[in-house]
Amino acid sequence: MANTGIINSKITYFKAISQSILKMNDFDFLPDLHPKTKRIQLQNLNMAYWELNSDRTRTIIFVHGFSGSKEEWIFQLDYLLNRGYRLIAIDQEGHGETDLTSRKTTIEDLAEDLFDFLMKKGITRVILVGHSLGGMVCQQFILTHPELVERLVLIGTSPRFENPPPKAFLDFIRTTDVATIIKTTSRFASLTLDKLPEEQREYYKKLKKWSIQRRTRSITKEAYVKFMLLTEKKKFNVVDDLNKIQVPTLITCGTFDKLIRLQNSKLINEKIPLSTLKLFESCGHAPPREYPEQFNQILLEFLQE
Hints:
Blueprint: E1 3-8, E2 11-14, E3 38-41, E4 46-52, E5 59-63, H1 74-80, E6 86-90, H2 107-121, E7 126-131, H3 133-144, E8 149-155, H4 167-174, H5 178-189, H6 201-218, H7 221-233, E9 249-254, H8 262-271, E10 275-280, H9 287-290, H10 292-303
């Protein structure tokens, strides 16, 4: 891991490094880990999840982003498997193998689904790890149920919905199949190879291919439209409440994130008293997958503080 210097006492930049997990076949860079899907009936939906090391007491809950699923945490689950933690990755409403409901879902609803899940499982203390939309859910959760959260990890996320999607894009997703939607949005969100270190480019091409396949099977067109309209409503904004978060918080973001502005991570860092911001250079929206070795080391160090 190359530390290129402390920007201030709460922000660290990390240079991109090549991944030793890179191999020749398309998807053999993925860990050889195949958790069994479990299900639990909650008040509003039937939730799918992965759980590993259920006999351990210190619990980490992983919450994915929009059009993601529990699968996106495979690198972290594999890395942490033998490090003493109970590991749970959930599928949020309408994602992965979890139901899409008919309710007018809000971030608050998704946070309460998570609360319901923990209560049904008898879990009273957690470390929350959330990416993008999942990070918004985690912020809402800790503000509503602060007594349940031991530590917080926020990745490529925002404390508010900002600009609503353009009408032309909403029209596009309403009239297009989900595979085309995912491929189109992936082209927008992905980095051009010239932005990456040369030794990282082959890995990134394979990761992008896997990401498109994974996201295409993770969400239906109906769910995609519903959750895109959720962002259009712009009802989520916890900026003024962030100073109430009083647990150690790790914030990470790619410096080339094209989906959620870097400024949002900096704002969260400024507002949460016990937070640290680590920025990944030559990285887009998903540090846990774009630079898994580096991200995992940072995560483990944070957990062991």
